[in-house]
Design brief:
This protein is of the alpha/beta class and 216 residues long. Helices cover 15% and strands 36% of the residues. It has one domain: 3-Layer(aba) Sandwich (Rossmann fold). A hairpin with a 4-residue loop joins strand 14 and strand 15. The protein starts with a strand and ends with a strand.
Length: 216
């Protein structure tokens, strides 16, 4: 089974964070599959090869050093894997330095929030337990466009909650994408502007040269 490191240091709490339900659920699923999990709570030890088979990096707020970036690239080229979770709108100013890692492998994180006025969910509006109506949430986007890949096996739909889009080039490829009605909302006003791209946007991509880089 794999040794999987959750990078707590560059993000702040993830598995232990009560607000990070998705990551906690992922950790539980991996443990049930007999994978060994470790929380990374310090800078990477760049004096030796990174020990994890897979590193999970959830929307980091702290910058990686140049040496850490080089260690991550070596990690991938040695046949190991990274799961990188990006954030919408570049809230923490991390996109530029994350792209220093991902662009080498054909994936470029965009500084937007995917929005779709046709393919999205609604949320119930309640007051004192009484349902008053429903509110449309155009940045909670329905995703039904998936590549045929082991990652998406058995997946028919997912809801992309306030996520960014990705620009890809070789050797990367799209794993999941939006509908044609979506757009990358740069100024976060939920309106399509002249400088914003509309169409089928990649929201999950992989690059598999030696190891696997998966970005969503």
């Amino acid at each position: 089974m794999a040794l999987i490191g959750f990078d707590e240091y560059h993000m702040g709490p993830s598995m232990a964070n009560p607000d990070a339900d998705g990551l906690s659920s992922l950790a539980k699923i991996l443990e049930k599959s007999n994978h060994k999990l470790e929380m990374i709570q310090d800078e990477y030890d760049i004096t030796q090869e990174l020990p994890w088979d897979v590193i999970v990096i959830p929307f980091p707020k702290e910058k990686f050093s140049v040496e850490e970036m080089m260690a991550l690239q070596t990690h991938l080229r040695s046949g190991k894997s990274i799961l990188l979770l990006a954030e919408w709108g570049d809230l923490y100013g991390h996109v530029d330095y994350l792209n220093e890692l991902t662009k080498t492998f054909g994936i470029e994180i965009q500084k937007d929030r995917v929005t779709d006025h046709q393919q999205h969910i609604t949320k119930k509006m309640e007051l004192g337990g009484v349902v008053l109506g429903e509110k449309e949430v155009p940045h909670y986007v329905k995703i039904t466009n998936f590549a045929e890949h082991e990652i998406t096996s058995g997946v028919n739909q997912l809801i992309y909650f306030s996520g960014c889009s990705l620009k890809i080039s070789e050797p990367a490829f799209t794993i999941a994408a939006t509908s044609e009605s979506s757009f990358g909302d740069i100024d976060l006003d939920s309106e399509l502007d002249d400088d914003e791209i509309q169409g089928e946007l990649t929201i999950a991509a992989a690059s598999e040269i030696n190891g696997r880089l998966f970005v969503i």
